Please model this.
Amino acid sequence: MLDVIDKRLLEEVADLHGLPMGAYNIRKNGQGIRRKTTANIEITTKEDKPGINVVIKPGTKGESVHIPVILSREDLHDLVYNTFEIGADSDVLIVAGCGIHNPGCKTAQHDGIHEFFVRKGARMRYVEKHVGEGEGPGEKNLNPKTIVEVEEGGIAELELIQIKGVDHTRRETEIILHKNARLIVTERLLTTSNQTSDSIITVELRGDDSTAQIVSRSVAQDSSRQIFHLNLRGYTRCRGHIQCDSIIMHQAQVSSIPEISAFHSDSQLIHEAAIGKIASEQLVKLMTLGLTEKEAEETILKGFLK
Amino acid sequence: MALLELKNLYVTLDSEKGKIDVLKDITMTLEKKKIYVMTGPNGSGKTSIAKAIMGIYPIARGQILLVGEDITRKGIAERAQLGIGYAFQQPPRFKGLKVRDMLTLAAGRDDPSRYCDLLYDVGLCAQDYMDREMNASLSGGEMKRIEIASLLARNLKIALFDEPEAGIDLWSFQRLTETFETIHEKLDTAVIIISHQERILRLADQVIMVKEGRISEITTREKILGDIQRLDMECQFSESGARGGKKDAGCNR
Model:
């Protein structure tokens, strides 16, 4: 069922060298092909639309769910709705991600809408990696939408990574934080050739003492274009911090459009953004350690996107 | 054979006023297992000499020989691979690179137990720093110490330290001078330290005085320290004179 390409894509997007431990659901070319549930994690197929429901029992600790998606043919538009219920006081890892191998001339596209309910006191770590490849000129497009609601005392840690090869992406992330909820978003993005990427992250801090930290790092190479809309909205006593750094190279274009809005006098919101080339001092420093200019550049980019 | 020879070296850089010779007719010879302290007024060309040796500044005229091999036209990386190292006065910061990554790049292999010793030598606790990113979360003094450790991680023929004491507290400074003494004792490395500090001058086998882009004098530490002592006495004298109503504008130490 899983061929060599599938296995390679699974390794890239979900760090899987075989079938994962714990619960999983593997989707290939628009259909679920492998699934495993555990005593604490139930995965069922939605009846009204394509996708799955993942229900994690309250108090579940140290377990993981892998839900990778593989597209390995052209002329395919895969749309999926996944809903996650993270039970109270649980602590889980969810690994998603999509790998597209497009061998043809026509577009292969995956649009995934993920909705998470992180219940009271729960902690969710969510890792989403995207990668595209393929011999043909057909586009590899990914448009994820992630909606997260974190209840009182809950923690959501999101790692959103686009490694390489995705032609066009529009990533929308909407998060609501309730009392004492905590959010950490780490975004890493690399675009090359004529690729385009839009990332829109909107966080509403609605509960007292909720906190949000968003760190976005990107590298734009060749003639690629990136646009970031990172929005924090504080409705109560809360703290939020956005840090958006981009390295721009060649003929690439990057726009970083911040929006921080406070609707309460005790909201503390900070936005920092920087776009620039690799500093020549950084290159020189690494070259004084014996690296060539190319090696120095690769080391800096690799570290930046790590 | 000399370890490093600089022969009639000129470095010309672009400035707002056009091209200027920042180094003029620099000639000196360095031997292995010796400490050279390069000193002189601000802007006199000390850092430029170090950068010319490292290959960061291009050589307009003259020649650099490393163990007899002409390296004048070699680039930074090539010189580094031949055993020349330079610790920057203000090391750059890196987002995403950790202290451990930097030391691994410098040493050429991942060797955490050695890094503990290196960080200890510069007054840092490895446990606290190994996984720290080399970004704005580190102070200037911390960056400086890691920079020095990254040079110590390498097996160098020529080690250039640009004002290593700047931003380093008194206690770590003591350890740093001990580290230089250890290099002197155990390794064949020629160490060039750019410094204005008397305690660093005391380590010198030779002192290189730089003024207006030229080497004005290569002398012994005894002579320089004697000069400093004389100047101190003159200052004390003029200060006591000033308290008595006299002023000596010439004494600025």
Notes: The CA atoms of residues 124 and 145 of chain B lie 8 Å apart. The longest strand of chain B covers residues 18-30. Chain B touches chain A through 22 residues (CB under 8 Å).
